[in-house]
Amino acid sequence: MKTPVHFEATIPSSTTEGLAVQEQLVSLMEQFEYSMRDVFAMRLSLEEGLTNAIRHGNKLSPDKVVTVTCDIDDARMRVVVVDQGDGFDPEDVPDPTLEEFIERPCGRGLMLMRAYLTACEYSDGGRCLTMERERNSPLPILED
Amino acid sequence: MSKSDRRLDIEEINGVTIARLLEKKILDEANIEALGLELFALVDKDGRKKIILDFTLVEYLSSAALGKLITMHKKVTVAKGKLVLCSIQKDILDVFKITQLNKVLTLCTDLDEALTKF
């Protein structure tokens, strides 16, 4: 059993910086020998969660930062992303699979995170996102 | 644009444009924007109407990349053309299924099947 790892980073509102953190977290998953399926799920979720915080939360403001905290062990990876934006209500995000929204070019990030993560919860008025995936989770469950 | 900067490798078979996506990870914004510009130019600049996007090399893609594919689909439809996606790896195919874009876009198992759509 590997010793659990705690990771923290504070980054400016830049998607390039977000990608760098994403790579560090994926590297941690690889050190803990998570499966390709778990890594795919977490990488996708990290991309969506970090982009939301940087672009939609902080609106790319150079005066605001995003903090990322990660705890990983042999059983699960848990990442908390906090932005300094105005927040939002996840319930206000429309279902992108509805006929009137299906051809919209945006609005699918939250849906993807919910599909791949064991836990995907927003708190603090939408400014704090907690993402968790258990090792070898069967998610996503697809309807045929 | 130098060859190393390109996100697409273009080939033409019987009047059908085959655009192979060269990036393994279509995740970061700069890459996605650049890919979008190359895709849209196929329709807007080159006037191509029969297009296959070959995903053989693609291992990751984000919702922002899906957005570019939707916009591309709309552009091709407006031009009265056809867009087909093929050779999509299982994990990526799941992304299309979760978002139900497999019902909007034409997805084929491989290039041979994609060519039969024209």
Walk me through this protein's architecture:
- The complex is a heterodimer of chains A (144) and B (118).
- Chain A has 144 residues and is of the alpha+beta class.
- Chain A is built from 3 helices and 5 strands; from the N terminus they run βααββαββ.
- By secondary structure, chain B is an alpha/beta fold.
- Chain B has a single domain, classed as 2-Layer Sandwich (Transcription Regulator spoIIAA), CATH 3.30.750.
- Chain B has helices at residues 29-44, 63-78, 90-98, 111-115; strands at 8-13, 16-21, 25-26, 50-54, 60-61, 82-86, 106-108.
- In chain B, helix 1 packs parallel to helix 2.
- Classes of the chains: A alpha+beta (144), B alpha/beta (118).
- At the A-B interface, helix 1, helix 2 and helix 3 of A face helix 2 and helix 3 of B.
The residue ranges of chain B in which pLDDT falls below 50 over 5 or more consecutive positions are none
- Describe the largest sheet of chain A: 5 strands, antiparallel
For the largest sheet of chain A, list the strands in their spatial order.
1-2-3-5-4
Count the domains of chain A: 1
Strand segment tally of chain A:
5
Number of strands of chain B: 7
CATH fold-level name of chain A: Heat Shock Protein 90
Envelope shape of chain A: globular
Task: Count the DSSP helices of chain A.
Answer: 3
Going by CATH, the architecture of chain B would be 2-Layer Sandwich
Give the CATH superfamily of chain B.
STAS domain
Largest interface: A-B, 26 and 25 residues
The overall average pLDDT of chain B, rounded, is 94
Mean pLDDT of chain A: 95
Using the CA coordinates, give the radius of gyration of chain B: 13 Å
CATH topology-level fold name of chain B:
Transcription Regulator spoIIAA
Domain count of chain B: the total is 1
Portion in strands of chain B: 15-25%
Q: Write down the secondary-structure element order of chain B.
A: EEEHEEHEHEH
Order of helices and strands of chain A: EHHEEHEE
Report the helical percentage of chain B: 25-40%
